[in-house]
């Protein structure tokens, strides 16, 4: 049997048969010492200066009062209009835009507060500030621009635009700013390259229109999707108060190596003993060679049912991946903070991308991890570096240091290759590949 086939077989082992070997502990409040340590850390970071420190301290106070971490900026945004105001908003529109898959994801996350504190697409000042220094104009951290694009010369300031997706009326957008962006600068600062070999550079140059627009968004409906996407408020309502909540992000179908990774992360030294993990994969558009969201969703559904672990929570994120490495790590952390997470599991080459011509990585293996860890204190979060899990012929899944120390025969594939290797067997596997 080939090494790839052997690893595929290992990935397909039923999760229920393996171990949910982690102890199934009841969820209780962490010790007083743990909470005191967190408050001390927040105060130390918040002592930094000016407006950002004030925002951070305010968020920390709200965290303690609510028992859950405060949303980014201190308040969870909800842009959905009351039912009795929706028709009037639609009738006020003088233009219509049919959204792309990516833009529809942005509208949904704006509406439900996943992009809190944004109340709409970024205006020019916020966009330029994020491009230049990964911060909104008011100084608050933000990873990547969130803008609406168009090629239309007919859309003007003050226009009320009906945003539709597959014919569904999602939102009303008021045009407050419109400009021609410096896309090479955006590419260089946000993605680290101006080469269209990078999927996000290709996206902003070849998919997005020549104009960007910013302005408030008023929600009408959420997109109709095959996979349900719980809102931040919905997810927060399922989380236990006063304990750490780890976020696990993935853009591939789930397999055993992933499971081993996030289960073991619950035992990380900077995580409270009764922590829970939100398994929160992105199911929106990614790069062209990734497996479709609907396939990813089905693998997670199988795993959730089979694992049946009370320390796990499951939800799906309607987010469009940019493969932006360090910048995307910050974006993901902000989003997961809005969903109630205090910790973010981050692995080697998170949200990384390779040249489509040479196969070389655009980012260093630990660039995203280091950037996220450096900025985590300002967010009031912590990072949990994912363990280097490897599959061995002799002992199955072990950490790489154990495999090295004991001279075990390792079989390694990247997450994308592992998913691709097993994808043809997904329908037949008792567990997702």
TrEMBL record:
<comment type="similarity">
    <text>Belongs to the sulfate adenylyltransferase family.</text>
</comment>
<dbReference type="InterPro" id="IPR024951">
    <property type="entry name" value="Sulfurylase_cat_dom"/>
</dbReference>
<feature type="domain" description="Sulphate adenylyltransferase catalytic">
    <location>
        <begin position="232"/>
        <end position="417"/>
    </location>
</feature>
<dbReference type="GO" id="GO:0000103">
    <property type="term" value="P:sulfate assimilation"/>
</dbReference>
<dbReference type="GO" id="GO:0004781">
    <property type="term" value="F:sulfate adenylyltransferase (ATP) activity"/>
</dbReference>
<dbReference type="GO" id="GO:0005524">
    <property type="term" value="F:ATP binding"/>
</dbReference>
<dbReference type="Pfam" id="PF14306">
    <property type="entry name" value="PUA_2"/>
</dbReference>
<keyword id="KW-0547">Nucleotide-binding</keyword>
<keyword id="KW-0808">Transferase</keyword>
<keyword id="KW-0548">Nucleotidyltransferase</keyword>
<dbReference type="InterPro" id="IPR015947">
    <property type="entry name" value="PUA-like_sf"/>
</dbReference>
<protein>
    <recommendedName>
        <fullName>sulfate adenylyltransferase</fullName>
        <ecNumber>2.7.7.4</ecNumber>
    </recommendedName>
</protein>
<dbReference type="InterPro" id="IPR002650">
    <property type="entry name" value="Sulphate_adenylyltransferase"/>
</dbReference>
<feature type="domain" description="ATP-sulfurylase PUA-like">
    <location>
        <begin position="69"/>
        <end position="221"/>
    </location>
</feature>
<dbReference type="InterPro" id="IPR025980">
    <property type="entry name" value="ATP-Sase_PUA-like_dom"/>
</dbReference>
<keyword id="KW-0067">ATP-binding</keyword>
<dbReference type="Pfam" id="PF01747">
    <property type="entry name" value="ATP-sulfurylase"/>
</dbReference>
<comment type="pathway">
    <text>Sulfur metabolism; hydrogen sulfide biosynthesis; sulfite from sulfate: step 1/3.</text>
</comment>
<dbReference type="InterPro" id="IPR014729">
    <property type="entry name" value="Rossmann-like_a/b/a_fold"/>
</dbReference>
